[in-house]
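Running co-folding for coenzyme A.
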Amino acid sequence: VRAKGIVVERADPAVHLRSALESDGPFLTEMLVEAFAWRPGAPQPSVSDALARPEIGRYVKEWPRCGDFGLIAEQSGSVGAIWFRHFSADDAGYGFIADDVPEITMAVVPSWRHRGVGRLLLATLIDQARQQGLKRLSLSVEPDNFALVLYRSLGFQVVGQVGGAMTMAVQL
Ligand SMILES: CC(C)(COP(=O)(O)OP(=O)(O)OC[C@H]1O[C@@H](n2cnc3c(N)ncnc32)[C@H](O)[C@@H]1OP(=O)(O)O)[C@@H](O)C(=O)NCCC(=O)NCCS
C-alpha cells in the first residue's frame, strides 16, 4: 500500500494495478465507451458524443468526485480500468440500488480481453471497497454479456431488472 493508493503486481496476467488518478479521466472515458458499446460490432459513440450524453457522461464527469475510486491495469500503458461512483435516486445510474451503494463500470482494451485482467481488476476493487468500509457494490449488465459470468463468479447476484439489463450487487 502506498500513499496514493494500492499497487498490485501480477505475473499472470503480466499487469500492474494502481489507483486511478485525476489524470486518468480520459482513459476512463475511453473505457466507458467500451462498456456502453460492449456488443461486438455495435457502433461506438465517439468520446465527445459519449460525454455529451448525460446518461453516459455522468459515470466519469468531474472525475474524481468525492467517494469515487478506481483502478488502472497497466502493461506498457493502460490496458483496463474499473471504478465506482455514487449516484442518488434523483440521478440514478443504470445499476442504482441506494445512495450508499456505489456503481461499478469496467472495461479492458480489446487486445487484452479474455486474459484474466478483468477478473483481477474486479477482485481487487471488491477488496478495496471492503477495506473502505463499503457494504455493497452494484452494476448493470445486459444478460447476453459474458461479463455476467465473471460477476457471478465473484459473488454478484441479480437484484433487479431495468429495461433489458440486469442490476447486480455484491455484499462485501
Ligand atoms: C467484460 C470485461 C471487462 C472482462 O474483462 P476480461 O479481461 O476480458 O475478463 P477475464 O479474462 O478476466 O475473464 C473473466 C471471466 O469472464 C468469462 N469469459 C472471459 N472470456 C470469455 C469468453 N470469450 N466467452 C465467455 N466467457 C468469457 C469467463 O467466465 C472468465 O472466467 P475465468 O477467469 O474462469 O476464465 C472485458 O471483456 C471487456 O472490456 N468487455 C467489453 C466491455 C464490457 O462489456 N464491460 C462490462 C459492461 S457491464
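Result summary
The longest helix spans residues 117-131.
Helices lie at 25-36, 47-52, 54-57, 117-131, 147-153.
Job closed.
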